[in-house]
Specification:
This protein is about 25% helix and about 35% strand. By secondary structure, the protein is of the alpha/beta class. It has three domains: about 55-160, no CATH class; about 165-325 and about 385-425, 3-Layer(aba) Sandwich (Rossmann fold), CATH 3.40.50; about 330-380, no CATH class. Strand 1 and strand 2 form a beta hairpin.
């Protein structure tokens, strides 16, 4: 009798000692797409019906993106349905080539404005590639494989301005609003930012956007991961501007065009930055200083609340997304408990215990926590903050929003905070 389980185990063992697939090949023969897979132990073949809009891609064959880039440039819309053939895996998968906009992109250590496309399969990004103004393929990234390929011996022709494509096309970019790069003094440094203003003379109701405390550029991107350029903060700014609001978003200290040290930013620095930005907005002729609201994310909500309560500012309201309702060290302990990997979770607990010990040492400046260095003088100040009392001290309309699917600040923080809120505040 055929023993399916034994056969599967044998096949799995053979795959393990096979050293992988050496090569793959596919070619059209009539109405058939013929696959050949070459291994040390054996060769395999497979035939599939020849699909329309066939695209052949392979993780290590970057030349295949040259004809794909030509197809992408000829697209009439922002998305092209394709069938992706992967010769080494003998696989055919439906996908799309999606235009992601013309945006600032890292290239050989510099930022350039290039045209960006993604290849998406089943809701996930298989690869990304960029094309310059001359239509030349410049670079390809395969994120799952950690691969980056860049063109050699060529000076790209960059675009003159960014034209991002907003996800779901909520906004039509051309002529929709005015955007300018600004530089704002704060506490001995200059903060670089972007002011986005609706069309017309104004003045406009204005929103200052305050990000979480992790270093990020003004668009919401992590500067340590140059290939993740979703720009969610920028997308939100554009959406708000479409609704008639002027918005200001800035680079974190030590990131992009902002001065300062990203690692040694004090709590007073962060609070002072928010205050300086609000006052700067109040003096702008295109933005109404009497209609400034603050929109914050995560621990940026603590910063914003502290800035408003400790100074007289022309702020009319606060919207805090994922405002942590627990003290800092309790919050971190809660987040560690949600780590799935037991070894990573255990190490994080050990890091937290060690950091709590160093917080008691007067001269200690640095600790390691979850693979990163943390600046203890700032942590000491934040550890003394009672976030619920801070929220209750606000004397202006407030909305505390908690996304149900947030895995960083759990939605039940709403219930923790609700008991402390008063009239004019809502969670």
């Amino acid at each position: 009798l055929f023993n399916r389980s034994a056969q599967e185990q044998q096949d799995e063992l053979r795959d393990r000692i096979d050293l992988g697939v050496n090569a793959g090949k596919c070619e059209p023969i009539g109405d058939t797409l013929h696959f050949q897979q070459y291994r040390f132990s054996n060769n395999r073949v497979k035939d599939e019906p020849l699909p329309k809009r066939l695209v052949i891609l392979d993780a290590y064959a970057f030349c295949l993106y040259i004809p794909l880039a030509e197809k992408a440039l000829a697209m009439k819309g922002d998305s092209l349905p394709v069938t992706v053939a992967m010769p080494q895996g003998m696989a055919l998968k439906p996908g799309t080539v999606d235009y992601m906009g013309i945006e600032r992109t890292p290239f050989k250590g510099k930022m350039m404005i290039l045209r960006h496309y993604d290849v998406n399969i089943g809701g996930s990004t298989l690869s990304s590639f960029w094309v310059d103004k001359a239509g030349q393929l410049i670079q390809v990234v395969i994120p799952d494989q950690g691969l980056l390929a860049v063109i050699a011996n060529y000076k790209p022709q960059a675009y003159d301005r960014e034209e991002p494509r907003i996800v779901k096309e909520t906004i039509k970019m051309q002529g929709g609003f005015n955007e300018s790069r600004v530089h704002i003094p704060s506490g001995g440094i200059t903060l670089g930012g972007t002011l986005t203003v609706p069309p017309g003379a104004g003045p406009f109701p204005t929103i200052l956007m305050v990000e979480d405390l992790e270093p990020a550029d003004r668009d919401g991107n992590d500067p340590s991961n140059p290939y993740s350029r979703a720009g969610t903060w920028k997308q939100l700014a554009y959406y708000l501007t479409e609704q008639g609001f002027a918005t200001l978003r800035v680079d974190s200290r030590g990131v992009g065009e902002s001065g300062g040290d990203a690692q040694k930013t004090s709590w007073a620095d962060r609070v002072g930055d928010v205050q300086a930005l609000v006052r700067w907005l109040a003096d702008r002729p295109s933005t109404s200083g009497h209609e400034v609201a603050v929109l914050s994310l995560g621990l940026g909500g603590w910063v914003s609340a502290q800035a408003v309560t400790s100074a007289s500012l022309p702020v009319k309201g606060l919207v805090a997304i994922s405002y942590p309702a627990k003290p800092l060290l309790r919050l971190w302990k809660e987040q560690i408990g949600n780590i799935n990997d037991p070894q990573t979770r255990q190490q994080a607990y050990l890091d937290l215990d060690a950091m709590q010990g160093k917080l008691q040492e007067a001269g200690a400046e640095w600790a390691n926590f979850r693979g990163a260095k943390v600046y203890l003088p700032t942590i000491r100040t934040m550890d003394q903050i009672d976030p619920d009392s801070l929220a209750a001290s606000l004397k202006l309309p407030c909305l505390f929003a908690y996304p149900e699917q947030d895995k960083v600040i759990m939605a039940f923080h709403k219930d923790v905070l609700s008991d402390y809120l008063h009239a004019g505040q809502k969670a």
